[in-house]
Specification:
alpha+beta; Rossmann fold; Phosphatase 2c, domain 1; Heat Shock Protein 90; 5-stranded parallel sheet; 5-stranded antiparallel sheet; 41% helix; elongated
Length: 557
């Protein structure tokens, strides 16, 4: 420890030097205030022993200066040593900032104990200051990282859906990050997908849990996969990516405009509420566990089908709505939600009606959980689609013909269905015809690859355990496709007749035509050919069953 002794009594200063150097201290003596000030400015000291009565003034008046001009830049511990025993002088010294006080004659051992104690207090203050600085730096770094994470999350999450007329949403996070996710997009077959997901907990951990679903679900919708397939794949991904104590509750809605049906999945979410035209509500509870809990072979989506033309609004939400408590600890509750829906006879939109009542109920308290609400105005959505389909198109003429051959491993890596959809869009095929053609083409390509080239048995898909095995085998066999395998596709579209023809030929051995026409409503297979025949003007299957030719016409019913 380096000690500055400010003392004009040379004998006493020498005594202090000898004692302190015997305790491994380095000492410097200054006889005046001005000399002491110069020493402190030019050199580093850990401690100051200060006499009060000095040749150029009272030491008590230089305490503040010594503490501020020292080279270390931090407060300097000072003990005053004086022969003055008056208490008011001691009090004044403490007011000026001295750390302790000793009266002459003094005990050197007591001086050393006081120096140790004062030095220990200063060291702890320095340590706390350093820790506070490091903590602030860490918090600043964390704030920057959270800001970057929030920007990335909001950018990805906002890309999950665009504003859609007649699909109204309200999302509010309980913290910086929202663990709820809303996705809405149109499938190439024309079906509207609406998905609301709620991850375990809230905040950043919940947001990270739900974020992987964005890209996965968006990609599957773009490929035209069914709601059952999307939910099954989402569960599979979450099972592999999330810890055992994390899961994602999810509601999935698929609106089929052509069949006027709604396919509904509810896994671990509050009841979905359907409002009919008599202002009566019908609740559809969760029929399976949340995603990420059951292994794929044990997971059953259990999707139900509703007749769309009997529903005015389809209303669903995360549990942050019904579980939020007001200041009186009363939850908002499912009963209150259904009553508000049934009693809303005004022109106020249903979503605004619920949100306004919730805000009054909550009395501007902080949310206990993330809050997400979606109101699908089914009737208006169907009417809008019907009006779109009735738009009179200008008379056009022309024809487009195309053919493509895919061989070997590219069969498993190519987006064949996406190519076909892009081709139809590029020649502006009308909405209804494009949707039906996409459904037929996707089914035929699936049959050609799965049953023709990969030789997968449809009987595996009679239950959801078999469906999981089916998907696993498909992944394995896609990787091992031989170079001799191929699919040939020929496409023709006439603008004047609004008629489309295409042929699908695969290199497989064909399949049993009679068995393929069997349709079982309780199974996951056997529907493909029956569906194709309903959507096409004509279907021709050339023996042994590896070539299918179809004709689809816009006005065909």
């Amino acid at each position: 420890m380096r000690v500055l002794i400010i003392e004009d009594d040379s004998l006493f200063a020498e005594i202090l030097q000898t004692f302190l150097e015997g305790n491994d201290c380095t000492t410097v003596v200054a006889e005046t205030i001005s000399d002491a000030t110069l020493q402190v400015k030019s050199s580093h000291f850990d401690f100051v022993l200060l006499d009060n009565h000095l040749p150029d003034g009272d030491g008590i008046h230089c305490i503040e200066k010594l503490k501020t001009v020292n080279q270390s830049g931090r407060s300097l511990p000072i003990i005053m040593i004086t022969a003055d025993h008056r208490q008011h002088n001691m009090l004044e010294a403490f007011e000026y900032g001295v750390d302790d006080f000793l009266a002459k004659p003094l005990s050197l051992d007591l001086l050393w104990q006081k120096m140790q104690r004062v030095k220990s207090v200063y060291d702890k203050e320095v340590q706390l200051a350093r820790q506070a600085y490091e903590l602030n730096a860490l918090l600043d770094k964390q704030a920057q990282e959270e800001e970057l994470a929030r920007y990335v999350y909001e950018h990805v999450a906002s890309a999950a859906h665009n504003d859609i007329e007649h699909i109204n949403t309200y999302l509010q996070a309980s913290s910086t990050f929202n663990g709820d996710l809303f996705i809405s997009d149109i499938s190439p077959n024309g079906n509207r997908m609406v998905i609301l997901a709620d991850a375990t907990g809230h905040g950043l951990a919940a947001a990270i849990s739900v974020l992987p679903l964005v890209a996965t679900i968006k990609a599957m919708i773009k490929k035209g996969l069914s709601l059952a397939h999307i939910v099954h794949e989402a569960n599979k991904k979450l099972c592999s990516d999330l810890p055992d104590d994390k899961f994602v509750a999810l509601i999935g809605v698929e609106v089929n405009f052509y069949l006027q049906q709604i396919h509904l999945f509810n896994g671990g979410m509050p009841d979905v509420i359907a409002l009919d035209f008599n202002h009566k509500t019908h609740r559809h509870p969760s029929t399976t566990m949340a995603l990420g809990i059951l292994e794929p072979e044990d997971f059953d989506p259990n999707i139900i089908t509703l007749e769309a033309d009997s529903i005015k609004n389809l209303f669903f939400f995360s549990d942050g709505l019904v579980e939020q408590e007001n200041p009186q600890k009363e939850p908002f509750g499912m009963h209150r939600v259904t009553q508000l829906i049934e009693n809303n006879k005004s022109t106020e939109p249903l979503l605004s009606h619920i949100v306004n009542h919730f805000s009054v109920f909550n009395e501007m308290q902080e949310l206990q959980d993330d809050l997400s609400i979606c109101d699908v105005e089914v009737k208006k959505l169907l009417d809008k689609q019907a009006n779109t389909d009735l738009i009179i198109r200008d008379n056009k003429s022309g024809k487009v013909c195309a053919s493509i051959l895919v061989e070997g491993g590219l069969i498993g890596r190519s987006d064949i269905v996406g190519w076909f959809d892009n081709l139809m869009r590029s020649v502006d095929v009308s909405g209804d015809l494009r949707q039906r053609a996409f459904t037929v083409f996707a089914e035929l390509i699936s049959n050609a690859i799965d049953h023709g080239i990969l030789k997968l048995d449809s009987k595996l898909k009679t239950d959801y355990a078999g469906f999981a095995e089916y998907l696993m085998l498909k992944e394995e066999r896609l990787i091992a496709i031989g170079d001799e395998e191929k699919i040939t596709m020929q496409f023709e579209y006439c603008e004047v007749s609004k008629e489309m023809k295409f042929d699908i030929i695969d290199s497989g051995p064909g399949y049993d035509l009679q068995a393929s026409t069997v349709m079982d409503d309780e199974s996951l297979s056997g529907r493909g050919l029956s569906l194709i025949e309903q959507l096409c003007k004509s279907v021709t299957i050339t023996p042994p069953g590896n070539q299918t030719s179809v004709v689809i016409k816009e006005s065909f019913k």
